[in-house]
Amino acid sequence: MTLTKRDLVVRISEETGLIQLQVLEVVQKTLDYIAESLARRDKVELRNFGVFEIKIRKARVGRNPKRPKKNVPIPARAVVKFKAGKLLRAAVIKLPTKPAKPAKLVKPAKGAVPATPPV
Questions:
Q1: Residues 45-84: pLDDT tens digits?
Q2: Per-domain boundaries in the chain
Q3: Which of 35, 47, 101, 104 is most buried by a 10 A CB count?
Q4: How much is the pLDDT for 33?
Q5: Which of 48, 35, 54 is nearest to 92 (CA)?
Q6: SS3 call for 5
Q7: What is the pLDDT of residues 14-57, one digit of tens each?
Q8: What CATH number belongs to 41-93?
Q9: Residue 66, pLDDT score
Q10: DSSP-derived secondary structure letter, 103
């Protein structure tokens, strides 16, 4: 499952009683300020959540799998790195290492009457 900005707005609105439009403005401003700071190469530190910072990846030579003998130059570039904070790391460490298997769907036998849901 994916948590979207819309999901955040709805959940915060329901929990706080604020109008969704107000919550959306606050969430969007927060994201805008984070993006602005990163664009200035500032580090963004959110205590117990994590740290966002800009790192410069060095230029390197890559290979095209379809033409492995031909080198492909990859230029240096700036990337956003995220390091999880103490509380987030602790919450994630508790997760199981193997994803849960979805329940198997059982096909009804030929001629079987489907069960009716209780009323």
A1: 999 899 999 999 999 999 888 888 888 899 999 999 999 9
A2: 1-40, 41-93
A3: 35
A4: 97
A5: 48
A6: helix
A7: 999 999 999 999 999 999 999 999 999 999 999 989 999 999 99
A8: 4.10.520.10
A9: 86
A10: P
Residue 71 CB contacts under 8 Å (≥ 6 apart), including other chains: 61, 62, 63
Q: What is the DSSP letter of 53?
A: E
Question: How many whole angstroms separate alpha carbon 84 and alpha carbon 30?
Answer: 18
pLDDT of res. 95: 87
Residues 6+ apart with CB under 8 A from 102: none
pTM above 0.85, yes or no: no
pLDDT of residue 105: 66
**Tokens standing for 89?**
């790391």
> How many of the other CB atoms lie within 10 Å of CB of 49?
14
Which amino acid appears at position 52 of this protein? F
Both tokens of 69, joined, read 């003998």
Residue 84, classified by CB atoms within 10 Å of its CB into exposed (0-12), middle (13-18) or buried (19+), is: middle
Residue whose structure tokens are 């003998």 = 69
